[in-house]
Design goal:
Elements lengths: L1 H7 L2 H5 L37 E4 L10 H10 L10 H10 L13 E2 L9 E8 L2 E6 L5 E5 L2 H28 L2 H5 L3 H10 L7 H14 L1 H28 L5 H4 L17 H15 L6 H15 L1 H12 L15 E4 L18 E2 L3 E6 L19 E5 L10 E5 L5 E2 L3 E8 L2 E8 L8 E3 L3 E7 L5 E9 L12 E4 L2 E4 L1 E9 L10 E10 L2 E9 L2 E9 L9 H7 L8 H8 L6 E7 L3 E6 L15 E2 L26 E3 L3 E4 L6 E3 L12 H14 L4 H12 L3 H14 L7 H16 L16 H23 L1 H10 L26 H11 L18 H16 L3 H4 L11 H5 L4 E2 L17 E4 L6
Parallel strand pairs: 5-12, 6-28, 11-29, 16-25
Antiparallel strand pairs: 1-2, 1-30, 3-4, 4-5, 7-21, 8-20, 9-10, 9-27, 10-30, 12-13, 13-14, 14-15, 15-23, 16-17, 16-22, 17-18, 19-20, 20-21, 21-22, 23-24, 24-26
Length: 920
């Protein structure tokens, strides 16, 4: 027994960090109220997809494993049923997409039709008399059918616990900031709670207030949502009790010391409706936020002004900021403008810090034991992701005359997945698709009877930074350490929120015992993130998110999306999405129309306030209608959100939504990974006759393509070839890169299973060259301080192996963040080509093509000489120099089961391929 358990020790704790890209499902509830007995029995379910709806969600549906199953897995590699049976099909699309036809789609995806054919039923269970859970043989997905509303939601909770009980328990603790006492003090666990709790620090009263608000202020739908949520929690708790008494609960509870394997002593703590708020805050924090980062933006602006002077420095900074770049790829590309968060003509209220005065707010105090080690001072933390993609083509451009959609969220690769598949059929509910485990009383992305929908992270600016002037209650001189601030002229104490976490070593996590205290200060303008001075006066910078204290409000929108009587066409779909407060791009397809809507609680700012920079915390600069008690304000009306019905096609890969819609951060310029989709879908649409297979091929081809090589390599080679290439090493590198470019710049195996890339040398050269060439191109002109300040706002690179990118290694998602646009505009300027919205200055070679060519050739020669081992260093998964392995995707364990690596694909984790031939 010692050997397998020892190999498991860090699987639970270290794996939790792999949160990665899509959208949120906030939920909540109040006292249990069963649906009335007069609930109508649902009619036979109509399915208008005709076998043309498909989906996939690796590694598998089953995310629970008993202690015996975990130990057998560690000793012999065995897997519980349906724990990993979608992984190989997902992986095989890399090799199989070139020959894809409509008839072969389900070789790579699941049939997402409603129901289970009689000969495909694997199991049937009825945890209550008013609900049946049927699982199919191929995937084990639960098909939940209730005769009452309560029974349907109860069944959803019961099935979720069957498939994800341990994972749900982990993430409710992440949301509450007390993961380490529950799962152990591994560095990854410390990083998780230190990342998420400061973003959404709540007391139990705060969580309950959000529950109560939905029930009391959202009318009949709010009351129904809370009843559904309570029924869902009741279902979770029913399975929790049954599995504990029957000893088939997840084995991680034993391995982390919560339950004794011999006596069964111990407890799985009951779930509460407030847990759903905590879970929703994690999902929303990862995928549904937008904005923030204004302090770092201010620092880079100050650096630019220091180098170039106030006027010219501001112009240089604005050119890198790319708020509304005219060359950016757009989702709404018909020219319609949706002005929001633009640079004001006469800025007012900006609160820039004194140079050198900014310090980040301390979070962790009173460290003991393992928390006091050097490594614990900076534990790994997940980065907020902007992920997911969508490709939709209107019926006018398809072979069938009906819209086709290929879409889904990139939520990282966890084992089990953060999302889970299910079908829900009951009074007022009819849907199949994916839901976040622990908040899955509704399908959050999926299909209804005659329509399908999905989302991508939008990231528009719903988070602002305010500078609050510090004060002392007794009238003394304030310092940057002061714990009171001026609120509308009154010196007001900040609210201290604390978490003291203590952990003990366990079989699953042998990290030695330790403890620490997390502390944040909450103000009416949000959570303190930094302290500084402005004109010598001490201030605190705070982050205020419009969805703070509203983690659950979006439940109304999801309820509507699941209701076949509400969503009947594209317009009603958009109306449902308007009830979702988080920043997402929502896409829709039925037999007649494709559509798009951008959701989010976009605060209305006073004229003159610049959302890109910190704002003085004075009443005239507050959000319009701002009430700090419940964090409410005036929000832009639905008509002002980017939206469209019937455009010839839509693409989204977290790119800019529409003309005029101000980018919330850096990097929305002339080259974006959205171009990988647009450059493939546009010619398909021009040719017409688009099919499910052709659109899936476009997605899959983009998923294995190197953005830098496809969009930047032609310009880079043009610069290097602007003079004869006489250096043999440079010439050889140019030839290899040119051959790769001609072959399509894919990062793909030579043959299925070879685990070796075609054009491997060219791929290695590109990976080594990019950071070198960016530094050589920009650092001499910008100077080290400004170059470093801009890099802090936007990382230089995010290659698949991404040891130097924000996503981290083995995460799949790549090429979202980088200096692609800056390099593109600068190189075209130096080459004398037209540039719309150019950078304020030419940087490569100081604007000289000859000098630029010399810098690019020198860095190319340096990159070509870099060994595979230096470009792809060893990590916990791969040996040094193993290129395919360095790119490969790892299903990061959130428990005791591990899975094989798969090929790199820059692709949604959960994905649908849909084409409805008929409509109600």
């Amino acid at each position: 027994m010692r050997r397998p358990t020892a190999r498991l020790r860090t699987a639970v704790a270290a794996g939790v960090i792999a949160l990665g890209a899509a959208l949120l499902s906030p939920l909540a509830t109040a006292a249990a109220t069963a649906a009335p007995s007069a609930d109508p029995v649902p009619l036979p379910v109509a399915d208008y997809c005709g076998g043309q709806c498909a989906d996939i969600l690796p590694p598998g549906q089953n995310g629970n494993a008993t202690l015996a199953q975990i130990l057998l897995h560690k000793a012999f590699g065995t897997m519980p049923a349906h724990a990993s049976d979608q992984l190989a099909r997902y992986d095989s699309l890399v090799a199989g997409y070139p020959g894809l036809t409509d008839a072969k789609v389900n070789d790579f995806f699941n049939d997402a039709s409603f129901g289970v054919p009689a000969d495909q039923v694997e199991s049937t269970a009825s945890p209550r008399s008013d609900v049946t859970i049927t699982r199919d043989k191929k995937t084990g997905v639960p098909h939940i059918k209730g005769t009452t509303r309560y029974g349907t939601s109860f069944g959803a909770g019961f099935a979720a616990a069957q498939d994800r009980l341990w994972q749900m328990d982990l993430f409710r603790h992440v949301g509450r900031g007390d993961l380490t006492p529950f799962a152990g003090g591994a560095l990854a666990n410390q990083g998780l709670e230190q990342q998420f709790w400061p973003q959404a620090p709540y007391t139990e009263a705060d969580l309950q207030a959000q529950v109560d608000r939905i029930r009391t202020t959202e009318g009949d739908r709010g009351r129904l949502a809370m009843e559904d949520a309570q029924a869902y929690v009741d279902g979770i708790n029913a399975y929790r009790v049954q599995s504990k008494n029957g000893r088939y609960f997840p084995g991680e509870y034993v391995l982390t010391g919560h339950i004794d394997s011999i006596t069964n002593a111990g407890e799985i703590q009951p779930f509460k409706t407030t847990d759903l708020i905590a879970l929703a805050s994690v999902v929303g924090g990862l995928f549904g936020g937008g904005g923030g980062g204004e302090v770092q933006a201010a620092l880079s602006l100050l650096s630019a002004q220091q180098k170039y002077g106030l006027e010219e420095g501001t112009r240089v900074w604005e050119s890198f900021r790319e708020r509304d770049d005219p060359e950016a790829v757009l989702t709404v590309h018909d020219g319609t403008s949706f002005p929001y968060a633009q640079k004001p003509a006469n800025p007012q209220g900006a609160a820039l810090p004194d140079p050198g005065s900014v310090t980040a707010e301390q979070l962790v105090y009173d460290r003991t034991g393992a928390a006091a080690t050097a490594a614990a001072a900076n534990p790994p933390k997940p980065v907020k992701q902007s992920m997911s993609n969508a490709l939709l083509v209107s019926g006018a451009k398809t072979a069938s005359g009906h819209p086709v959609a290929v879409f889904g969220p990139q939520t990282g690769y966890l084992a089990p997945q953060l999302l889970m598949l299910q079908e829900l059929q009951g009074p007022g509910i009819s849907a199949r698709g994916a839901s976040f485990a622990g908040v899955s009383m509704y399908v959050q992305l999926g299909r209804g009877q005659d329509y399908a929908w999905s989302a991508t992270s939008a990231g528009q600016d719903i988070t602002d930074t305010f500078a609050v002037e510090l004060c002392e209650p007794g009238g003394g001189a304030p310092t940057t350490a002061s714990a009171s601030y001026l609120y509308r002229g009154t010196c007001t104490p900040m609210e201290k929120l604390e978490r003291t976490n203590t952990w003990k070593s366990s079989v699953a996590d042998p990290t030695p015992n330790g403890s620490y205290r997390m502390q944040v200060w909450r103000t009416n303008y949000g959570i303190v993130t930094h302290r500084a001075t402005i004109a010598g006066k001490p201030v605190a910078y705070t982050a205020l998110r419009s969805t703070y204290r509203h983690e659950a409000d979006s439940i109304i929108g999801f309820q509507m999306l699941n209701d076949p009587s509400y969503v009947t066409d594209a317009r009603t779909f958009q109306q449902a999405a308007q009830h979702i407060g988080y920043a997402f791009n929502w896409f829709y397809a039925d037999a007649r129309e494709a559509a798009y809507y951008n959701s989010g609680s976009n605060p209305v700012r006073p004229a003159g306030v610049d959302a890109a920079l910190p704002i003085a915390a004075k009443q005239q600069y507050e959000w319009q209608g701002f009430d700090p008690a419940a964090n409410t304000a005036a929000y832009t009306p639905p008509a002002e959100h980017p939206q469209s019905i019937g455009q010839d096609y839509y693409i989204s890969w977290n790119n800019k939504q529409a003309k005029g819609y101000g980018a919330a951060g850096f990097g929305m310029g002339s080259v974006h990974r959205g171009d990988l989709l647009d450059q493939r879908v546009k010619p398909l649409v021009a040719a017409g006759g688009v099919t499910r297979a052709k659109l899936t091929q476009a997605m899959a081809d983009a998923a294995v393509t190197d953005l830098r090589a496809e969009n930047l390599l032609p310009e880079l080679l043009a610069v290097v070839r602007s003079q004869p290439v006489t250096d043999p090493a440079v010439a050889a590198a140019v030839d290899k890169l040119a051959a790769w470019q001609a072959a399509g710049t894919e990062r793909k195996e030579t043959a299925q299973g070879s685990k070796a890339y075609a054009h491997a040398d060219a791929v290695r050269i590109m990976d080594a060259w990019w950071p070198l060439l960016i530094e050589a191109e920009f650092k001499p002109g910008l100077g080290a301080p400004l170059y470093d300040a801009l890099r802090a706002s936007l990382t230089v690179d995010e290659a698949p192996n991404a040891g130097h990118g924000p996503t981290g290694s083995h995460a799949g998602s790549a090429f979202q963040y980088g200096w692609w646009s800056y390099a593109d505009k600068d190189l075209r300027t130096v080459l004398g080509r037209p540039v719309a919205g150019p950078l304020a200055k030419a940087y490569c070679g100081g604007g000289s093509l000859s000098a630029c060519r010399d810098a690019m050739a020198a860095t190319l020669k340096q990159a070509a000489s870099a060994t595979p081992a230096s470009v792809y260093p060893a990590d916990g998964t791969c040996a040094a120099g193993n290129q395919w392995c360095a790119d490969s995707i790892v299903q990061r364990p959130v428990g005791g089961l591990s899975h094989p690596q798969i090929n790199w694909q820059n692709r949604p984790t959960y994905q649908q391929v849909v084409e409805f031939p008929a409509h109600r």
